Amino acid sequence: MRTAYLDIETNYVGRFTDQRLFRDSKNHKITVIGVRIMDGEKDAFFQLVSEEATREALLAVLEGVAHIVTYNGRSIPDDVKGYTGFDFPVIAAQLGVVLDRVFKHLDLCPACWKVGLWGGQKAVEEMLGLKRELPGKDGKWADDTWKKYQATRNESLLKDLLTYNREDVFMLRRIEEALEGRTQKSESRSQKPGVRSQK
User: Fold this and answer.
1) Cα–Cα dist 51/194, whole Å
2) CA–CA separation, 124 vs 145, rounded Å?
3) Most buried residue, 74, 93, 135, 148, by CB count within 10 Å?
């Protein structure tokens, strides 16, 4: 099954500094869309940067995909808390396509909630014992790094941002695998026959 793992980086140009910032989709300008496509033994990675991140280019990358996996990407409220996420609302506001109305979608954030894993992607990775090559960086770092790159055109800043985005994307599959392992262990325990007492 052809699966896409997707994560975006943005440059926030709005006025909010509190939690409203994350819901202010129209003021998050997309700087990078990272997409990993897995299809059997095939494994490809794409990044659309700044002006390359168009509706047409993204849909071309996603052509033939059966479903998309994100962490907190949903635009449709989840069935745990009734919240929406970040990536798809921003993509809808900036590119005019609502991805979870076009493709089947697995959002790992509410999937993690259901097994008692709470927090952002990096926090969940730590809970699962997953190690990053670039620890200590987050979305604010990505936003700041893009702003510095725009001001200086220092290519090493762009390289760091793209490396960070790639790791965000590749961690999605590792989280998914960890959740699958937990589910299998839980099912295995529930299927073990009970021990009857001997009288």
Assistant:
1) 60
2) 24
3) 74
Considering only CA atoms, which of 32, 36, 25 is closest in space to residue 9?
A: 32
- Contact indicator for 143, 105 with CB cutoff of 8 Å: no
Q: Which residues pair with 42 in a beta bridge?
A: 39
Instruction: Report the half-sphere exposure of 151 (CA within 13 A, side-chain side).
Output: 7
Question: Please, which residues bridge with residue 35 across strands?
Answer: 6, 46
CA distance 9 to 162: 9
Matching CATH number, 3-109+132-174, of 3.40.50, 2.60.40, 3.30.420, 3.30.160: 3.30.420
List alpha helices for 34-118, DSSP H. Answer: 55-61, 87-95, 99-102, 108-113
Burial of 185 (0-12, 13-18, 19+ CB in 10 A): exposed
23's tokens: 């819901």
